[in-house]
Design brief:
single chain; 168 residues; mainly alpha
């Protein structure tokens, strides 16, 4: 993981091979609560070994998404691909301090996810529109240059959060 003090080890071994274990997508973890509970001591960017694993994670994502290299350069809208992987790469970029790349990728994920999720009949805990929207709200400057974008993000999030739960 990209943070020091996580109980589970890294999801990628030193040689770059995946370490399969129970895995929760990082964008679904309540990091603030984890910090308060002491599960996370400090952000990993300052820790060289954590930085190394973060680099391996970025390499793994970029290698896996190599067939979609044009998307990594962010020159056109994302094709219909497994956008969870792009969300993971955006999160890794964010944790690595590559904020411009993270924001561009979060925007592409949000745009692609919204096309599919806005018509959902029921609520889901895995709406990428919501996760990418919150990430963008956290990263975008709160000034006049992003007022319209922030309003649209908040509208998308509220729309999906109001969906009813699926029948039991």
């Amino acid at each position: 993981m990209a943070y020091e003090g996580i109980v589970a080890g890294p999801a990628i071994k030193e040689d770059g091979t995946p370490c399969f274990q129970i895995w929760i997508p990082p964008w679904e973890i309540d990091w603030d609560a984890a910090v308060k509970q002491g599960a996370i001591k400090t952000p990993g960017r300052s820790n060289p070994s954590i930085k190394k694993y973060l680099g391996l994670a970025i390499q793994a994502y970029e290698g896996t998404l190599g067939n979609y290299a044009h998307v990594l350069h962010l020159t056109e809208p994302m094709p219909p691909v497994p956008i969870d992987a792009f969300m993971g790469l955006a999160w890794c970029y964010e944790q690595d301090g590559q904020l411009a790349d993270a924001i561009r990728l979060y925007r592409n994920v949000h745009e692609q996810a919204w096309k599919y999720e806005r018509d959902a009949l029921f609520s889901s805990t895995h709406f990428l529109t919501i996760h990418s929207g919150y990430a963008l709200l956290r990263l975008l400057p709160a000034d006049e240059t992003t007022v319209n974008e922030r309003a649209a993000l908040e509208d998308h999030i509220k729309t999906l959060e109001k969906k009813p739960l699926p029948p039991a």
